[in-house]
Design a protein that fits this description.
The chain has 443 residues and is an all-alpha fold. Helices cover 71% and strands 1% of the residues. The chain has a two-stranded antiparallel ribbon with strand order 1-2.
């Protein structure tokens, strides 16, 4: 019997040690699907999905009433507020009959929360709760997309509130319009004529799934603080929509066929199932976001390109190269480097490592980021005032501690430091840039 390590090596060899472009179409699709499944499985084994989904469940429970209250008030202004309760019932359909009690309690909270009589402080706290939730969601997606910097406070306020205020109106107006069209006399007459009747019946079944997939696609395209390709957002939306539909059916059957929850949790059974369903929902959303990321960045599927730890020499080389690239772009008035462009330049590095090195350089005051979207990197000082020895010291001294050392070892290390200082001397980043241009080009 083969060990797990041997099975893993066989899978890696099957999925990656061949050029899929040379394979037949169906085999190529199956190999790419296998790579996608392997990449998602690795993320599950890391525990990141579970941890973020549980965190988002807690945030959702705190924010669901304020969010529903804001949406209800906006929808009431357009005369379509009666659509909120049916939407909640549809969302919680897998909970069976327990959804009625949960939705009635949420609606009761919303009706008791009268926005018109709230004080200024109360309104601010209400909006803050919603903004905090959306920021939490953005942070989870930024981790998936390896984005180092979230939206600024001003953009966060404008973007989030615009979606919260306008989004429900568009969604519920579209749902209401589609129902009106489907129940119009003309459509009803067409439904009595074949094959239009079968076609309209199929459309009526397909519309909810299209709305779900479209909502997920919008989430994947809008929330991450980076540019997401339309194809990646659509693929992630379709994947999550299908997974959501399948999970709804499975979860509904489990709830309907299980009486243990009621026996164990008694009156809390509905609340427990509600939290479990929210957890499953966020898990599906995060997995779909990962699928969208892998579709746009397929090179991150290959585990052989991930280098978890840099040696001391590699860390020094990466830091010097990053400073040279960033410094030269500013010094020569070239297009500034972003995290995405640096990723493309150093595809051999795991994004987390690249991000960590950039953050270390920023923390030591060697580089700064611009306020543009996406953020670009600039040297924090004039390139002639940044010493190469300073960059090396940042790398070599990052793990320094006050641990006692043998005198002979300490003396040897002092000689090593002195030799490095003598080698680089007064070499500045400007000198390094000019030497790079005279020799190897980093572009």
């Amino acid at each position: 019997m083969q060990s797990p390590a041997q099975i893993q090596r066989i899978i890696l060899r099957t999925l990656w040690e061949q050029d899929i472009n040379q394979r037949p179409g169906l085999v190529r699709i199956l190999i790419y699907l296998g790579r996608m499944i392997w990449g998602i499985a690795r993320k599950f084994l890391d525990g990141d999905f579970n941890m973020r989904a549980m965190s988002l469940v807690y945030t959702t429970l705190l924010s669901i009433v304020p969010l529903a209250a804001i949406s209800f008030s906006v929808l009431r202004g357009f005369g379509i507020h009666n659509q909120l309760e049916p939407a909640l019932l549809e969302f919680l359909a897998p909970l069976g009959d327990r959804r009625i009690e949960i939705v009635s309690q949420i609606v009761a909270f919303v009706e008791n929360l009268r926005l018109g009589v709230l004080s200024t402080l109360g309104m601010v706290m209400l909006i803050y709760t919603i903004i905090a939730m959306t920021h939490k969601v953005e942070s989870a997606f930024n981790v998936i997309w390896h984005v180092s910097k979230p939206r600024s406070l001003a953009r966060r306020f404008a973007d989030y509130l615009s979606v919260i205020l306008v989004g429900p109106v568009i969604v519920f107006s579209g749902v209401s319009l589609s129902r009106t069209v489907l129940h119009s006399s003309l459509v009803q007459w067409l439904a009595s004529v074949e094959p239009f009747g079968t076609l309209l019946y199929g459309v009526s079944l397909l519309v909810p799934y299209l709305l779900i997939c479209g909502g997920f696609a919008f989430l994947y395209g809008f929330v991450p603080n980076t540019r997401v390709k339309f194809s990646a957002a659509i693929l992630g939306g379709v994947f999550s929509g299908l997974l959501w539909s399948a999970a709804s059916v499975i979860f509904a059957n489990l709830v309907a066929n299980s009486s243990n929850y009621s026996a164990i949790y008694a009156g809390f059974a509905g609340a427990v199932l509600f939290m479990v369903w929210i957890y499953i929902g966020w898990l599906i959303i995060l997995v779909g976001g990962q699928v969208a990321f892998y579709w746009q960045n397929p090179r991150f599927l290959d585990p052989r390109t991930e280098k978890a730890v840099l040696t001391s020499r590699e860390a020094e080389e990466v830091a010097l190269e990053l400073m040279t690239l960033i410094g030269r772009a500013h010094y020569r008035h070239e297009p500034l480097w972003t995290f995405s462009s640096l990723e493309q330049h150093r595809q051999d590095l795991q994004p987390d490592i690249l991000l960590r090195e950039l953050r270390r350089l920023e923390a030591r005051g060697l580089i700064i980021t611009t306020s543009t979207q996406p953020p670009s990197y600039l040297p924090a000082r004039d390139v002639s005032n940044i010493q190469v020895s300073e960059i090396l010291q940042m790398v070599r001294g990052r793990d320094q501690t006050e641990m006692p050392s043998l005198p002979s070892v300490a003396a040897l290390m002092d000689k090593v430091d002195a030799a490095i200082s003598e080698t680089v001397g007064t070499l500045s980043l400007k000198d390094l840039i000019e030497r790079a241009e005279a020799g190897e080009q980093f572009a």
